[in-house]
Amino acid sequence: MKIIVLKFGGTSVGSLEKIIKVSKIIISYIKKKYKVIVVSSAMSGVTNELLSKTKKIARNFPNDEKDVILSTGEQISCALIAGKLRDLGYMSRSWLGWQLPIITRGNHSSSRIIKIKKNKILNYIKKGGIPIITGFQGVNNDFRITTLDRGGSDTSAILCAKFFKAEKCIIYTDVKGVYTTDPRLTTNAKKINKISYEEMLEMASLGAKVMQPASIQEARLNRIEIDVRSTFSKTTGTTITKKKNIFSNNTIRGISFTKNDAKLTLIGVKDKPGIAASIFKPLYENSINVDMVVQNVSAGGKETDLTFTIKLEDLKKTEKLIKNNIFIKYRKLIINKNVSKVSIVGVGMITTPGITYRMFKALAKKKINIEVISTSEIKISVLIDKKNLKKSVEILHQEFKLNNSL
Amino acid sequence: MKIIVLKFGGTSVGSLEKIIKVSKIIISYIKKKYKVIVVSSAMSGVTNELLSKTKKIARNFPNDEKDVILSTGEQISCALIAGKLRDLGYMSRSWLGWQLPIITRGNHSSSRIIKIKKNKILNYIKKGGIPIITGFQGVNNDFRITTLDRGGSDTSAILCAKFFKAEKCIIYTDVKGVYTTDPRLTTNAKKINKISYEEMLEMASLGAKVMQPASIQEARLNRIEIDVRSTFSKTTGTTITKKKNIFSNNTIRGISFTKNDAKLTLIGVKDKPGIAASIFKPLYENSINVDMVVQNVSAGGKETDLTFTIKLEDLKKTEKLIKNNIFIKYRKLIINKNVSKVSIVGVGMITTPGITYRMFKALAKKKINIEVISTSEIKISVLIDKKNLKKSVEILHQEFKLNNSL
After folding, report:
1. What's the pLDDT tens digit per position in A187-217?
2. CATH assignment at residue A354
3. Which of A12, A94, B116, B143 could covalently link to B163 via disulfide, CB atoms 3.0 to 4.6 Å apart?
4. B-chain residues within 8 Å CB-CB of A20?
């Protein structure tokens, strides 16, 4: 059996007309003799609308009941797709998380899929049926509905591809693929044909919102090849695959950036062992993710300056936690909300000397000041003034010849 | 255990504010030491909105997928109630039809509940929990979600009362109880304190839309006492109970009426045995309900006139079926859309002579013409010109002294 998993995102099923479009895409694979397994998100906007109901009715709305409510989004979109396919003469039905079942563990609203029971779906596709499986949800040991992290439908699709041993997983979305950088920022952005899991992971977590990072990680671990492509265009998309399948002319594959960061600098922190830990512990305990961190070498050995970045949305909470933290002494807290992080990403970077130098030189030439630097094996990130964002991305795009990408 | 079943209708949970109100009603029973089982409808309007989606996307949207979609209405309302109760400090959770399970048989979209599994709910209420059970739905042998007939949440509640051996079932709705006639038509209408199942059944099926008729029938068969009362008022409602519990000063207990009927008269039908059957067979096969029927005695034995009433919404289909029916010959079809059926209802009628005479005389006095008559053991119905509806109801209300009802 040639099994293929097709995943449709919220915007792809965002209206009844779009669901009809989606049904026709599904049929095109059936005509190519594929056994198709569909995973769908909720119609765009629905999940947020439902979420706002829970927030309005109770300050501490319990997560288990929130999951019962949010899961209706996919329940509806999947039944609409199945109903339309039947209307068009195909055998199809919706499969809710609890009906397979898709078994999850962990807390409500952020559960993990640990197993997808296969037999019912395999029997169904053998008989010629097209199963439409609800993304983003499952059922736990107590037979209660659970949901994954937001955007979890991508993970549902990848794990369906894994458990059903699919040839491929195709993510249908509202963009044509993965770009060298965000096409909304600069028209220089170019679609990438093939990208490695690792590069995609860096691009995704750095703000290129094509897929949820956790789902790319699952694909990488299970060696599931992914195609990302547009529901509304015939052009081929981007294939996300193993490093060794990538034959690129470029060391740098993409430039990602963030716009919603905040930089905090603690001036005159008393320098003693464990001081950074005591600053970051309460942040960690409150699920605040600290991204870039720089600690200055302390000039007389007594005091140091500590700079770090967080998501802008966490700023208020972070400020409060630092001010209430009795374990740290510092002279002054400086906050800068006008920062952006620009990153160049590429798996070839580690074997190519001089990349860092070229990046810094290109920015310096345009008089763009670098505030913080962080690097990984396949990525270099710099923090800059937000007003220089477009200029920085364009100069780096040019420097690393991304216009000529394959 | 003193178990009570509380059922909330769509208007009772029609907004977040109303759900908060409902939560407080539930808590008031907990404070009276009841073990409360809640059954809820979907928020008003939601089911119709979902239904319109299925109609828009496919001309023949399959009923099984329609059920998957419609069931989300109660899934959301029940989770909102449970979440609010938890927020207020009570142990509560939603229970979806498939989680108990509530087992149904029959076709999708018009299934019947055949069993409600009790053990999980009984364990839960013993531990002090307040279960919020989705009305209107269940699960079939194939583990697929099913729904009952529209308004089926009443039946869900009655059957919960039956299976859990509840002391009583209280139907919370948007009216204060059952009235002698529709208060929107005449201010003379008076709330009835106690009514028998049989009377209520006639009132319900004749257009007094307080409860779904099938649910009253279930209550009658299982001797479940029902209270109907308003979610938004403290006044006591109407108790629906056994005939022998009714001690009324009146033979006639209520006057119900319809506004959406159509009268069809076939003039000059060739009179031969089985002619009525051949007229009504195609209507029956198309689920068109024929209500009142009169066949004139044929003058010479060759021809007769046949008059019958149907729901106005079935008129077009009926007209077509009659015109295409090759088995019947008639001279002319006369259609009258301006008719109303007025019925007087009372279990004591059968033992009280002269009721029919009093009804006809009262109408005649006001020069109201009776077009068709039909009678049952506890009801007399007459078809009149719609323009005389209000006048007719008021004169009958006065004739049978319903202003003095208990």
Report:
1. 899 999 999 999 998 887 665 578 888 899 9
2. 3.30.2130.10
3. B116
4. 57
